[in-house]
Design goal:
7 helices, four-stranded mixed sheet, alpha+beta
C-alpha cells in the first residue's frame, strides 16, 4: 500500500510540474506563432519533442519550469511546442507540411524533419529569426544553465554583432539563475 501511495504522489508531482511549465511559458502551436508574427516582431523558439521521450519530459519539468528561463523565452520568442510525430497539417511560406505516415509508430512529421535537417533527436530546440529563417537547431536535453546563454545570444541579437563569437560570449556570460 505504501508503494502505491508513493507512486501516486510522484505521478501527481510530475503532473503538477508539467502544468507549472505550461503556465509559465506562453506555448503556442506553430500556426499560432506564424499568425502572431504578423503583428509582433519576435524570433521563434521551437521545442521539438515526442510523447515517449523521457528527456523531453525532464526538460519540461526542470528547464521550462524555471522562472528565469520562462521569462526569457516569453520575452524574446514565440514559444512553440512541436510534437515531432503530430498528424496536423502546417502551412508555412506556401508549403504544406504533413506526417506522411501518421498510422505508423514513431513516424516524424515533415516539419520536424525540415527543422532538424533530417537529424531526428529528441528533445531538440530550434531557433528561427523573426522571418522564420533558421538560426540554429540544437539537439539534446538542456538544463537551465546551458540554455540561458543561448536564449540571450539569439534573443538579444548578439549573434548579429560584428565579430560575434559564441565561445567568447559564453565565456563572458553572467547568469541570472540562482547560484
Amino acid at each position: 500500500m505504501n508503494r502505491i501511495a508513493l507512486l501516486l504522489y510522484v505521478s501527481f508531482i510530475g503532473l503538477t510540474l508539467n502544468a507549472q511549465s505550461d503556465k509559465l511559458i506562453n506555448w503556442m502551436s506553430f500556426q499560432e506563432a506564424i499568425e502572431a508574427s504578423e503583428n509582433e516582431n519576435k524570433k521563434f523558439f521551437i521545442d521539438i519533442y515526442t510523447d515517449w521521450c523521457g528527456w523531453c519530459k525532464k526538460m519540461d519539468r526542470s528547464t521550462f519550469s524555471n522562472p528565469v528561463i520562462a521569462e526569457l523565452i516569453n520575452k524574446y520568442y514565440f514559444p512553440v511546442k512541436l510534437d515531432a510525430e503530430m498528424t496536423d497539417r502546417v502551412l508555412l511560406n506556401g508549403n504544406v507540411f504533413v506526417n506522411e505516415h501518421p498510422d505508423k509508430r514513431r513516424n516524424p512529421h515533415q516539419l520536424a524533419i525540415a527543422l532538424l535537417n533530417g537529424k531526428m533527436s529528441y528533445p531538440s530546440t530550434v531557433y528561427l529569426d523573426e522571418k522564420g529563417n533558421m538560426l540554429q537547431p540544437i539537439p539534446g536535453y538542456q538544463d537551465p544553465k546551458s540554455i540561458e546563454p543561448i536564449l540571450i545570444f539569439f534573443g538579444t541579437n548578439e549573434h548579429l554583432k560584428e565579430g560575434a563569437n559564441w565561445e567568447k560570449f559564453e565565456q563572458n556570460f553572467k547568469s541570472k539563475l540562482e547560484q
